[in-house]
Write a structure and sequence with these properties.
By secondary structure, this protein is α+β, with helices and mostly antiparallel strands. The protein is about 50% helix and about 15% strand. Strand 9 and strand 10 form a beta hairpin. The structure holds flavin-adenine dinucleotide (FAD). One of its GO terms (molecular function) is oxidoreductase activity. It is an enzyme of class 1 (oxidoreductase).
């Protein structure tokens, strides 16, 4: 049990239920999903039927409308499965792509996309990054030109998680030219919901170091005609929507990383207590025991940081600094922890088939996805440097 002032008995009961659902779903099949490169439809349906794809979403679309800490628990448990690709696929669907639809409150889009996504019948992807623009959104060049009651979309999106399987994409597009290069280049951006079956869309799977079951793809939009009603919010409000959504995205990445580290520590503890050496067990040696003590302490501190950011977010604030700190600290700690855990598990951990080698690969993705560590540091530095010490 994770003791915290933020977690009630109800959260812990929920954790017990979710852990059982995820263990039954993921542990027997996770390796085959990694080989297939994506999650099967049946997995999405199980998650939908269990009510796990709409924990934050409103009741009007079948969501559970639970408090944020219910989602924090869910994300920790997603991470605790030890399958980063699974955790990424589900969190992109449930907290990143569909988040923008839930905020837009468009009845037609609710009916056609959001409600089926909550039921696990339709899979969502978020397509922002392009071959020529990642961390710097002002460089996005995918256009959506108005044409009667449609937009015509042209451009290429890269690193799209769930890209190989998604039924719809939330796509960042330019509905009008940027005001300027540099920061003003973020004007004219909009978000559009695009049916993945529309003519003119091609999807190319890409092979990645980790997150192998996340269905990562490059998606090309070549003159795709999208109904004007698929625009989320006002034309040109895309950057504003993304800046809000990215805070949640960072919090989600941080909470899921906590669970990944729980798995990593638990596996390493088991290894050290079972592995016989030097007349006892490895856990009896002071060096590994102290290493575990340090890692457990770092993880406990990281959890407080993430819970604090989540608590601020739940108060209705948009705690950009705390979300960035939480994402930066947890995702980097997850890399250090995975590396230490692999060392502690010796050659058994180095085998390609070991859980820790997968966790090690997967940890690397999270310091880049949802904004690289350097961008998090920029955001934190800006806030710290402009705020006088109290
Ligand atoms: C596994 C994975 C899954 C992803 N899933 C999605 C998805 O579903 N949808 C989507 O749209 N995108 C996705 N992305 C893309 C992700 O959001 C981008 O990788 C990220 O925004 C960084 O963009 P980039 O990779 O193009 O790096 P670039 O912008 O080319 O930057 C390269 C490197 O330069 C450094 N850098 C960048 N900016 C700064 C700065 N301001 N100061 C100092 N150094 C800097 C960083 O080290 C950075 O890693 C995913 C990425 C990964 C790795």
């Amino acid at each position: 049990m994770t003791r915290s002032v933020h977690l009630t008995e109800r959260h812990e009961e929920f954790r017990t239920r979710v852990r059982a659902v995820l263990e039954a779903l993921v542990l027997p099949a996770g390796e085959s999903w990694e080989r297939d490169g994506a999650l099967p439809r049946t997995a999405w349906k199980v998650l939908g039927d269990e009510g796990l794809l709409g924990l934050l979403h409103p009741r009007r679309v079948g969501g559970a409308e639970q408090d944020l800490f219910t989602s924090v628990v869910f994300l920790e448990e997603l991470g605790r499965t030890g399958f980063g690709g699974f955790r990424a696929a589900v969190s992109v669907h449930a907290y990143m792509a569909t988040h923008y639809l839930a905020r837009a409150r468009e009845p037609g889009l609710d009916r056609d996309w959001l409600a089926p996504a909550v039921r696990g019948e339709r899979v969502a992807a978020l397509a922002i990054t392009e071959p020529g623009a990642g961390a710097d959104l002002s460089g996005l060049v995918t256009t959506a030109a108005p044409d009667g009651d449609h937009f015509v979309v042209r451009g290429v999106k890269s690193m799209v998680s769930n890209g190989t399987t998604a039924d719809f994409h939330v796509v960042a597009v330019r509905t009008s030219p940027p005001a300027d290069s540099g920061p003003r280049g973020t004007t004219g951006l909009s978000l559009l919901v695009v049916d993945a079956r529309l003519p003119g869309i091609t999807t190319e799977p890409v092979t990645t170091l980790g997150w192998r079951s996340a269905g990562t793809a490059t998606v090309t939009y070549d003159g795709v005609r999208v109904p004007a009603g698929c625009l989320l919010g006002r034309p040109g409000s895309g950057f504003y929507q993304l800046m809000r959504g990215l805070q949640l995205e960072r919090l989600v990445a941080a909470a899921a990383a906590l669970g990944g580290m729980d798995r990593c520590l638990e596996d390493t503890r088991r290894f050290l207590t079972e592995r016989r050496a030097f007349g006892g067990h490895l856990a009896d040696l002071q060096a590994p025991a102290h290493r575990i003590a340090d890692l457990a302490t770092d993880l406990a501190a990281a959890r407080q940081l993430v819970y604090h950011a989540a608590w601020l977010y739940a108060q209705g604030e948009l705690p950009a600094t705390e979300c960035s700190m939480a994402k930066l600290h947890t995702t980097e700690l997850a890399c250090r922890l995975a590396d230490a855990a692999l060392q502690l598990q010796g050659s058994a951990g180095y085998l390609d088939s070991s859980a820790i080698s997968r966790i090690h690969r997967d940890a690397r993705a999270a310091t880049i996805a949802a904004g690289p560590s350097e961008v998090m540091r920029d955001l934190v530095a800006r806030s710290v440097l402009r705020t006088p010490a109290s």
